[in-house]
């Protein structure tokens, strides 16, 4: 099975770190493809759309060469794109959907983005000192101590493939405006969330669980970047969820 991995706001494939390789080792019969949203990663010179459906359409064009059907694993804003894809897919195109710390307009605005975070997000988007900015993003999204090596790694990513301020604004607009259709796209999906998420309240995932009777698993301490904080927990939960059948 081909898995498509989608990252969140202004982040790209390199920010997954060794998580894709861990997935390949855990599920050797599957193939995992990290795909960048428009305006990030290998597409950093492109303009990002300011609506999730247009971003989803761009992602689908990027993976057209990969044989379907697909499983989707997506973090944060990437989860919005994945959900929109599942709701607009052809029958059987999406087999499994795993969303990590994502949200939608089914949840209250102050839970989708905690009020204390907005000033930091806006300040970071305009900050020019790349190293300090990436270090602060890590400190905000991860609940593990930020090592100097990891901060340098994220700094190098941004130096090589910088996300423009205009694209960051467009992606933020897309995330804020996103509202899924009311119809459940799949009988079940796996919702992974973190009680320690200081950006998106974990009950945003609970809202999706209650609306569509999907499977919810809650991590006790990890931050918004759950794959960075506890990749083994994610793999354990995915393995258990897939074995339900």
Q: What's the overall average pLDDT, rounded?
A: 94
Radius of gyration: 17 Å
Task: Say which CATH homologous superfamily is assigned.
Answer: Alpha/Beta hydrolase fold, catalytic domain
Specify the structural class: alpha/beta
CATH C-level label: Alpha Beta
Helix content bin? 40-55%
In DSSP terms, counting alpha (H) and pi (I) runs of 4 or more, how many helices? Answer: 11
- Report strand order across the widest sheet: 2-1-3-4-5-6
Main sheet record: 6 strands, parallel
Gross geometry: globular
Which key terms come to mind for this protein?
single chain; 245 residues; alpha/beta; Rossmann fold; 6-stranded parallel β-sheet; 11 helices; 6 strands; 44% helix; 13% strand
Folded structure, characterized:
With 245 residues, the chain is of the alpha/beta class. The chain is built from eleven helices and six strands. The chain has one domain: Alpha/Beta hydrolase fold, catalytic domain (Rossmann fold, 3-Layer(aba) Sandwich), CATH 3.40.50. Strand 5, helix 9 and strand 6 form a beta-alpha-beta unit. Helix 6 packs across helix 7. The longest helix has 13 residues. It starts with a strand and ends with a helix.
Describe what is shown at a glance:
The protein is of the alpha/beta class and 245 residues long. 44% of the residues lie in helices and 13% in strands. The two termini are 16 Å apart.
Chart the SSEs and their pairings:
Blueprint: E1 2-6, H1 19-26, E2 31-35, H2 52-62, E3 70-75, H3 77-87, E4 94-100, H4 109-112, H5 117-126, H6 130-141, H7 148-160, H8 165-177, E5 190-194, H9 203-212, E6 215-219, H10 226-229, H11 231-242
Parallel strand pairs: 1-2, 1-3, 3-4, 4-5, 5-6
Helix pairs in contact: 2-3, 6-7
